[in-house]
Task: structure prediction
Amino acid sequence: MRSCLIVSVVALVLALAGSSAFADAIDQSQVTQDTGVRVSATRLLCQTFTAGSSGNLEKVSLWFSAAADELYPATISVVGTTNGVPNAGSPLWTGYFANLAKGWFDVNTSSTAPFLTAGTVYGIKLVVTDTVVGDPDDLWNVALTGNPYPRGSLLENRGNGWVPVTIGGVAKPDADAAFRTYMLTALPGDADLDGVVGVSDYLTLKEHFGMTGASWSDCDFNGDTVVDRADLAILSDNFGASRANGGIPTPEPATLSLLAIGALALIRRRA
Ligand SMILES: [Ca+2]
Ligand SMILES: [Ca+2]
Ligand SMILES: [Ca+2]
Result:
């Protein structure tokens, strides 16, 4: 009973300590530009990217160039991919914009802040409603050659599926659009994303130890889809870290010993 009380008190203290947030930081970035690529209702564009860290996507920025009267309503989405190509299903995030603006155009995705997993490929998809043939369209600035962003590519879809962007009918597989992604990186070991690596995360790991096909919320912190000792080590090493204390592990002694006893039992039981 006494240890239950200690665990509850520690969990409460850690939960309160995690109430402030880290600032979002640039996770992926491609800023090289040598031309603008048109996007229209009959030509969708998608720049794929590989998340560098696991966490919540707070913002994406795209670089547009066109005269003000050439900027048309757009839908910008963040999508999952299969074999490097955007999924047809529901986007992870989507927003409608009556007007775009020249230069870096910020898209605030924090309304739902989709969780991205390090090493996984996603896409930023751009769809506009301009159907006027011959009218200047929105221009997403790109680098056409040199593959400045090796962990993704610029794709187009003219109604026949996603392929590398084409210019004058020539495929440009080394093209990349100008974009940035901003993430609120998750604390290693914070399965429930409450900003604290604490008892609730440990209990989740204990419950899911040995699980396959796992994701971050199941306590797969290293992205190998298995919950095992490696994930336990990550959680243990970061126990007590919170956004409030700058992510520094600060185990409370009583909790640490409880965690150690539990972890030993866990390993023995599943060995
Ligand atoms: Ca590329
Ligand atoms: Ca947590
Ligand atoms: Ca794992």
Observations:
- The helical segments are 2-17, 199-208, 229-237, 253-270.
